[in-house]
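Quarterly update, task 2.4: beta-L-arabinofuranose-bound model.
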Amino acid sequence: MRIRAGLAVLALSAALVPGSARADNPIVQTIYTADPAPLVHNGRVYVYTGHDEDGSTYFTMRDWRVYSTADMANWTDHGSPMSLTTFSWASADAWAGHVTERNGRFYWYVPVKNRATGRMAIGVGVATSPTGPFTDALGRPLVENGEIDPNVFIDDDGQAYLYWGNPNLWYVRLNTDMTSYSGGVTSIPLTTAGFGARTGNTGRPTLYEEGPWVYKRNGLYYNVFAAECCSEFIGYSTAPGPTGPWTYRGTVMPRQGGSFTNHAGIVDFNGGSYFFYHNAALPGGGGFTRSVAVERFTYRSDGTIPAITMTAAGPAQIGTVNPFVRHEGETSAWASGVETEPTAGGGINVGYIDNSDYLKVRGVAFGGGARTFTARVASASAGGRIELRLGGPSGTLAGTCTVGGTGGWQNWATVSCPVTGASGTHDLYLRFTGGTGYLLNLDWWQFNA
Ligand code: FUB
């Protein structure tokens, strides 16, 4: 799949961020992503997403994806560690899931269509790493009532709750194994006091539509959800306990961004609070070709959530990137024109690179200066060049590495070239140039001082 940073992104940037030259939202530019579920683990934010297929005219989704960051600006693509094929009993609809960690295991709760019943059911993938691979924990659905969008919250007393639902809102109490539950499937009453009154369409009594995101902060329980389809906005309710009673508190994110759905996930990381959502910001974007984005926000002193607006800039970077250690090619703030793919032998590489494609790495601290640049590359064609530019894809040229053919797209070789004028902190652009057709693949890069 090939999404070019074109007029749609520039138009969104101009519309949402007057005067801003940065445009690092949405956080994934190589494919369409949806339904973000963030998880903080070991100093990184992992975001688990769905994957809208190119040209989709329905929620045509076959696998899930994982991305992570340490600085909220540069995101690493970890590929697809779970798909419909993980669940032998599932036939379609790899929709909005949620990952939680317990006792060193990562549990990925997902809604999929049960082939046997034709209904939506909740399956559980399990892994020992946040990036998988995930396997089917049960070999069957954990719970099935035709409804979607699972979300798990583990309270301070260790009791875990699985919430889900559209058009209703349900929960079960999970056992500590996270793959079974005690007691029955319980309905959360959708009262207008709890979830707001719908003014317009349909027979639904409240604003609640789908996509619950339940968490606890300073003793208060929050349920942030997609409201009042279609199009959806994001609203929220609070409660004194994990099962209610809920009180509707208002809008978190208004209708914006060109997708008729939205889907929320919230985490605190490194002293900041971050709101993940999706929109239609990439070229070709729409209700079935969505993209995950993120904003930083601050709770009000009374714990209420301010209205959050979509931006094309995204959050400020935390810290800087050290160029003198190895970086994966698939870690960037913006990837223009390229794709990622599994690398033979493991990992991910950047591929399908054409003339003028580029990768932006935000906030690279060269300090007193870099002398050389080294990259792991492969090319089944005649190769091309990697231009090292500072501040923009046409910014100051600090070096050019020539890449020749290596005899295959997975035949890897190391190339180096001299660097001049790279000192201080800059956004680094790896700009690829050459002839027609695919030029080269990039696995990793590093500068030397
Ligand atoms: O992505 C498919 C569905 O669209 C999700 O399950 C809902 O939350 C909505 O975003």
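Highlight for this quarter: Residues 67 and 77 are 5 Å apart (CA to CA).
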